Amino acid sequence: MKNKPIKQKVRIMLITLLLSLFYLQQGFAQVQIPISGIVKDSNGVPLPGASVIEKNTTNGTITDFDGEFSIKVASKNSILLVSFIGYSNIEIKIGSQTKINVQLEEDAQNLNEVVLIGYGSQQRKAVSTAVAKVASEDFNQGAVGNSMDLIQGKVAGLQITRSGGNNPNSGVAIQLRGITSLTGSTSPLIVVDGIPGGNLDLLQQNDIESFDVLKDGAAAAIYGTRGTNGVILITTKKGKKGKSSFNYSTFLSRDFVNSKPEFLSASEFRQAITDGIISPNNDLGASTDIFDELVNESNLSQYHNFVASGGGETGTYRASVYYKDSQGIALENSREEFGIRGSFNQSGLNDKLNFASSVAVNFNDANLLGGGQFGIVTDWNPTAPIFAEPGGDLNNQGLYGFYQPENGYNPFSEYENRINQRKQFTFSGDMKLSYEVIPGFIASVFGSYQRNSWDDRYYRSSQDWAQYNPGSSYNGTGYAYKSSYLDYTQTIEPTITYNKDFDNSTLEFLGGYSYQYSTNENFSASNSGFTTDGFLDWNLGAGNAITDEDLPRPGLSSFKEDNTLIAYFTRVSYSYKDRYFIQGSVRHEGSSRFGANNKWATFPAISGAWVISDELFMDEVDFINNLKLRVGFGVTGNQGIPNYQSIVTLGTGGKYPIFVGDEATYYQTYGPVKNPNPDLKWETKKEFNIGLDFGLLSNRLTGALDVYTRKTEDLLLSYDVPQPPFVRSSIYTNVGDIINSGIELSLTYRIVDKGDFSWTADFAGSYQNNELSKLSNQIYAAQELYGGSIGNPGNLGNAIRNTEGGPIGDFYGKRFAGFTVDGKWLFHKADGTIGRASDMTEEDKAIIGNGLPKYYASLTNTFKYKNLDLTVFFRGKFKYDILNTVDLFYGNQNLLPGNVLNSALGEFSQINEAPQYSDYYLESGDFVKLDNVTLGYNFNLPDKSPFTGIRIFGSARNLATFTGYTGRDPEVQDTGLYPGIDDRNFYPRTITVTAGININF
Questions:
Q1: What is the C-alpha to C-alpha distance for residues 995 and 991, in angstroms, rounded to an integer?
Q2: What one-character-per-residue DSSP string does 902-956 give?
Q3: What is the rounded average pLDDT of the residues 682-703?
Q4: Quick one: 105 exposed, middle or buried, by C-beta within 10 A (0-12, 13-18, 19+)?
Q5: Which of 44, 628, 675, 793 is deepest in the core (most CB within 10 A)?
Q6: pTM for this structure?
Q7: Contact 694, 688 (CB under 8 A)
């Protein structure tokens, strides 16, 4: 089919690698310089066994019993890297030195690490809330489809799921500490370089410095109405002072299907005909594995990123340009994009005035035609051909060269005769101007503008089966559709900060104002009746449907909406003796989305921390190096609902005639489409968090333990109301509550750190529990929420019922009791008896499982030996159920002569009745994945090399899955109200293999 050639892509990569290897050969060994010295701890005691390595080489040694070392280095420009377990690493440039004395400081869990906390930053030691940080060196390696993939499994309590597999045009589902809303937003607020609501499309993996995740209410309350689902602060890389530098990064990646459903092959289908199970007239003479035919075996994705950065005494800059071509495992499924990101920072007036600005642009072209056709596997007769000759005996006689199933479709005919494309442009620009009025007092103003727009085009040729089949209303003519979308957001946030150090204490104050205006608009038009495909979708007016009323009516629509958010906020942080910390914040915020009586709300937070390990009574506890207790409480809101829900909006009705004499003029009528609710307000979450940060055994083992409980009140939902007095039959209002609680544990253990070899293990795990504690009050009533449609055949209804007083994600259905002797279903009834499917009533159904995992865990092992590094990453989910809808529908021979699973004639051959939803098809979803293995090598470079660093790496993702689940993959949707359903309309899971190179010069 229409696959892009890959020779040019491979050629580009090979040239790059050859040039890199050429430069590696340059230079010869230099005269070495002898260096000696001693390494001591912070108390001046010699440290035996400390590692001393010439940076970016394998040349190294360790200190002796007296802490002394000697080493020969290549040149005066060499840098020594000195390290020891439990102490911060230090780098020393040789210069003219031949004798070096080194004093290492204790590394108390990176207490000097800077952590973002929203509108500012703090040293890790001073943080009193639940904040997790993931730096670039800890990101998941290899090709990633979305920037959030970089930290999948890295933060306890943060779930990142790609239920769409590795589809380059699919997104990720993000959820922090469980579900918090029934109808509002459930994803964390994304803040990119201070821009709230930052667009992930503008972020490339090589441009990101770190992620800071504000997990609890006390941390997120500074963002008020958008903080209920947590906040993810993303920092991009900036220029640094010093010599200008360049970086080029590139990789090639390839996807391979790691599992496929085992449907009948052509030979197995014919064997069923021989066995008398299928009628002989269903043998159509061909042999087609439609799944394999839909796979793009030649897929090859590539990524290129070039960076220039540097700076002087008063300013820095960084600019990057990238190109990415992502080819999906499915045919006609790709995304090509390129973009630019630049940042600039300048200071003046004796460093009192600072100006910073950044710009990011992304252009992408997505082919949306393929990727959704794998469901045809379940309907495709494996003896049917893809192509059929005119005049043949097959259905439709191959009118335009393609076989058309009688009750289905041919995806290859669609690939040939359809266009489905999106071209998107995304822009973000920001600036920040700050001035230090007096020492410690800084006034700033931050502004940003974000714009996102796309144009969609869709065309069906007159030769498409949908246009000319016997039941088509298009009468063999073409159909075209075009649409455009635009949204933009303007933000301005002036702030003041004041920091003051006293004898034993420090005071920090933040005050600010925030204004954000957002709008979006869209337009679409469609027409049919195109008697030629010569214009495609570029001449909508040429379609005959404008005048021919026998054809479907042309379509025309447009829409615009907007909203405004205004806030005042303040935060005060106080520390005493660098041991006791307290922080409080308040945000007073108003939104145009809510009712006239509830436009404004206040969101307070308070937290405190006590560094217990700094107390005198801990001096004798040698194995504890750091111990900090954190306690916090915060109130946040959720305004992530559609606009105009509190007011009356009008919609169109029928046409009404106005007569003048005997002639009527028809006028469009309008009426209200919703009931107004002036009391509509925020969903409010109140959260209590207690945490413990620790460092043990000379800080070889560090980590954090958090226990939380949160209650989200005034949940928004549509409720039935009487008519009259209400104009419409439902109203959107605040009623319900959800309670979430959980435990999160993060651990880092430096298992080995001796000489040339080190081994570090990082663990992140969490436990979650939830309850839909309230759905009704004295005015509005609802007992349960149904969802998770199973679909046809059989109209099996919804799989999940969320009930007041119960947990989220309960499977609700029949309880399997066996089969009759002739293969008919038997189920348990509520009265204790057993009945057939026709005997079952709604009262006989029960809770039969739950689709939301209780436990999440991940383990990263990082090994380093000289210049080699190896990362092995495992992650898993536990204690949840999966509804296997593929088995439910296609493990049943009653669907013959449509295609079925091998198991329908094997394991499930006893079933002799139409599919029924019950716990017979629920399975444990517990799994552990070997999710990422990356092997890298840093080359030793001679002193005269034009390069300062070269790294090559190979990576493989989703390598193996250890599970008892019998379906294609146990990683199904685990966010939202209706988790745990393995959808039969799947996109294949893949193993992704990547090879790349990173060059600094």
A1: 14
A2: GGGGTTTTT--S----BGGGEEE--EEEEEEEEEEEEPP--TT-S-SEEEEEEEE
A3: 94
A4: exposed
A5: 628
A6: 0.88
A7: no
